[in-house]
Each structure stands twice: as structure tokens, then as C-alpha cells.
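Batch manifest, entry 17 of 40.
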Amino acid sequence: MVDRLSWFWIAMMVVVPPCFAVAAAALGWRKQEMILGNLAGATVIFAAALALIFRESIILDRITQQCLEDGATCWPQPSAFVRYAIYAGIGLIEVMALFLASLKVEKRMQQRLYAPEWRR
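Output type: C-alpha cells
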């Protein structure tokens, strides 16, 4: 475990939080509160990223402690920072995608206010 990434958890970060984030954001978007919807969605994504970073930290601490108890030193490859940065980077990209999606949703909602012949 020290010499490889947790691909299952990385895949979970890519798939699960955006689904819940869009659902949370849609609650605000439907009420014409785009900023509140974006904040709700971003909170879901960043909370998931932090939870997975803490999970990775706990696992690395346990493995390192086990190595020390066995009388050896072991260093995780890739480093802890890189592992944390993967989750943080995925979270940031997901939040940017959520914000871009909200722009499209807002544009569609504004277009509904105009007669079809006046729409672009």
C-alpha cells in the first residue's frame, strides 16, 4: 500500500461527489439562487475531498507506524503531499465544472423569459 495509489478511492472521488453536488446545487438553481446553489455544490465536493485526504492520511500514518514497529523505515511512494494533491486537484476541477454548468443553467433559465422568436 505504501508504493501505490488508492485507485478505488480516486475513482470514487471522480464519480460520487459530482452527483451529490449537482443535486445539492440544483435545489438553489431551481429557486433562481445560482450563487447559493454553487456554494452548496462546492461544499459537497470540497467536503468529500477533505474526507478522502483525511482517510489517506490515517492510512499512511498506520502503515508508517507499522513499519517503525517492525524496526524499519518506509517512505510512501508517491509522497503524502502528492496523494493529497490528487484529491484536492480533482475537487477543484469538479467545482470549476459545476460553476460552468451553472452558467449554462442560468442562461437557459433566462432564455425562457423571452418569446421563442426573440431567443438567440
